[in-house]
């Protein structure tokens, strides 16, 4: 499910470690901000990353921000539960992050229709 929250596009999702079966949140979903400038799959807060993926060896990656600054992320491959779809991709975190952020790698499987006049959002799978 997707929404506009204060004119910000968000999607409802849950994150799962495919190796341990741990899911966050345990019940329900969280809002993740849609960021079309982020080319990755999913950014999550550090405490959630530790809760779900602490047993796995993480990989470091460099992220380049729009202003040219560079950040180092760490991540692992995980799953996103989005409605009835299960999507696999690189789930990462950066220091100080306190929200969930979806990127192009996750969104490329969907058609997104946003109508700010009607305050409506439709998210539909490509297939």
Automatic annotation (TrEMBL):
InterPro entries per record: Peptidase_asp_AF0612
UniProt-recorded Gene Ontology molecular function terms: peptidase activity
Keyword Hydrolase set for record: yes
Entry EC number(s): 3.4.23.-
One of the GO biological process terms: proteolysis
Keyword annotations from UniProtKB, A to Z: Hydrolase, Protease
Official protein name in the record: Clan AA aspartic protease
